[in-house]
Structures are given as structure tokens and as C-alpha cells.
UniProtKB/TrEMBL annotation:
Lumazine-binding domain mapped to chain residues: 1-96, 97-193
UniProt name for this protein: Riboflavin synthase
Reactions catalysed, as given in the entry: 2 6,7-dimethyl-8-(1-D-ribityl)lumazine + H(+) = 5-amino-6-(D-ribitylamino)uracil + riboflavin
Function: Catalyzes the dismutation of two molecules of 6,7-dimethyl-8-ribityllumazine, resulting in the formation of riboflavin and 5-amino-6-(D-ribitylamino)uracil.
Amino acid sequence: MFTGIVEELGEVVAVERRGDSARLRLRGPLVTEDAGHGDSIAVNGVCLTVVTTADGEFTADVMAETLDRSALGALVPGSRVNLERPMALGGRLGGHLVQGHVDGTGTITERVPGQHWETVRISLPDGLARYVVDKGSITVDGISLTVVEAGDDWFTVSLIPTTLALTTLGVKKTGDPVNLEVDVLAKYTERLLGHRARTEEPA
């Protein structure tokens, strides 16, 4: 489980294609200082399993399902990535509950700079809009953010200077894809209410 508070802005060192999967080699001295084989690290919001670590770098395998569902397939050497280690038991939940299981990808459609912040508009894929509400939580490329306004197929977020300086959203441009994970509590609530409605139907 993650919190959506990015620990380190890392970099893709190499991408090795392996048929319908890929192995990524990424640089992240902070997140690898206590990482070993089998540990989890979120890369742009996708929970990946560490294969090897050495000299501040780590490798992770990305299967076809993850490449299809996320924007990791667009990464190339030199791409910047948001990195986060799992939350330690008893640690502070600075963002919100993030699983590292991407629900789909959106596209940055507009960036509007303000005096001390920036408003970013992002498209929503079919089926996710019902989980996104004004002032609710959403994860964008692994960053826990608060929704400013939610539309039928889009939403906006406001980015403070710290987010712009320390995450990929400071450098991503209009047209760039981003990974999206909606609030898991909304998905569980929908599932439970649907189950309740079915069990209460008259025989």
C-alpha cells in the first residue's frame, strides 16, 4: 500500500523489450537504499517488484497487462518517473490509500498557470468518471491529488510549486499520457451497494 506522496523523481536508464513484456532499469538512489529482491516500488503509480539493485539503480519486470493498462509502455531512456516505497506500518498517511493498481490512463489536455500554482485538466477514460468527484482524491502518475472539478470525461487538479518541482507533472506537456488510479474506497462502496441491491431484490 502506498500514500501517493512521491519520495523521489527518478529516471529510466534502460528499457529491454521481452516479447509482450519489458524489463525496466531505473535510477532512484533514495528508494533503493533499503530495497532488495522482491520488494515493491511504485513507478508512476504502478506497483512493481524489484528484481535487482545496484549502485542506486533497480530493475523491474513489466508484464503485458500492465503495459496495456498503464502508460509505462511509453517510457524511454531518460524519462523521468515518480518513485515511492510502500508505506511502513505505523507511518503517516500523508496522501490517501493508494494500491499501485492503475485503473487506466488519461491525457493532459490543458495547463493553465496561476500566480503560485498551475491548474491541469486531464481526460478520463470510459468507466472511471463515476468514481471521481469534486474535492475527492485521485492518483495521477502516483501522485495523490485533490480533484478541483470533475466533468463527464475529464477532471482538473491544482498543482502547488512543490508538486511542480518534485514530480513528473512539473515537466509533462499537453498530450502526454498519465496513469490514473481512482479512490479504492469508491470502488468498494459501489460493489457493496450493488451486492446489497441484488440481495434485497424480491424473489
